[in-house]
Amino acid sequence: MANTTVTFAIPVIDANAILEHWQGHRRLTRKVIGAFPENELFNHSVGGMRPFSEMVLEMLRLAYGGIHGVVDGSWNKAERFNDGAINTKAALLKAWDEVTEALDTFFPQITPERFQETMHAFDNKDWWAGPAYGIIQYFVDNEIHHRGQGYVYLRSLGITPPGFWERW
């Protein structure tokens, strides 16, 4: 099947809708974090995977460093979540909320042209090169993937996770 490009006079989805989609996933992931008992959040794993708290820290680094990188090229902001200071559920949720606010603040600064620019996420030439919109989609996909692992962890603890549709 040949690749076909379809052009629309107006965008199919605008930047505000992309942000709301991402924030909807973040609201659901926050519910998943909240469903974990504190000890299991930082210690429980299945099949040798990382504890869910470590996956959440990865999501925080991608979202916070990513939004700054996409907006102005300052990809190093992700380092903020590498110091080991987030070691309680309350601190993790507080950091989550701070990043949520950062997305609301910085996402609107992405120009329509910037969404189309090719960039190297986190200045890593070997990791991801693509248009800004594709990098943002990766951040959302990564969160969905890790949230799914969180669902498995919760079920293994006998806890029913929030419905996957509960993004509002």
From TrEMBL:
**Keyword annotations for this protein?**
Metal-binding
Coiled coil stretches, renumbered: none
What superkingdom does the record give?
Bacteria
Which InterPro entries does its entry note?
Answer: DinB (IPR007837), DinB/YfiT-like (IPR034660)
Identify its protein family. Answer: Belongs to the DinB family.
Q: What is this protein called?
A: DinB family protein
Q: Which organism is it from?
A: Chitinophaga chungangae
Starting at the broadest rank, the lineage of the source organism is: Bacteria, Pseudomonadati, Bacteroidota, Chitinophagia, Chitinophagales
